[in-house]
Amino acid sequence: METSRSTGGIAPHPFQGRAWRELAQLALEALAAGVLVSLVLALAIFIAATEAQAPEPAPAARAPLPAQVVPAPQPARGDEAALTAAGPV
């Protein structure tokens, strides 16, 4: 007594319709993941390259204004201890 269908002597194909769908779904998911990772990596490289090419600020913008320069305090003329500790004036 047979419980399975007879195929007429032809062996069934190893890949049925469901297996092909699962294989196609797996391939599409892998492709989508690869595209996403590539876009994130490209964005990171673009940001790093853009920051590396940023122009230097103008020399006038870096120099302090004359009003911001404060001279160092000078010791009094008769203060010998301050002169030797501070060095020659």
Task: Please describe what this structure looks like.
- This protein is an all-alpha fold and 89 residues long.
- The chain is rod-shaped.
- It has 3 helices and no strands.
- The model has no long low-confidence stretch (mean pLDDT 74).
The shape, in one word, is: rod-shaped
The H/E string reads: HHH
- The rounded Rg comes to 40 Å
What is the distance, rounded to the nearest whole angstrom, between the alpha carbons of the first and last residues?
118 Å
The chain-level structural class is mainly alpha
Mean pLDDT: 74
The unreliable regions are none
Task: Provide the fold topology.
Blueprint: H1 17-52, H2 59-62, H3 80-86
Question: What features would you highlight for this structure?
Answer:
single chain; 89 residues; mainly alpha; 3 helices; rod-shaped
How is this structure best summarized?
53% of the residues lie in helices and 0% in strands. The chain is an all-alpha fold.
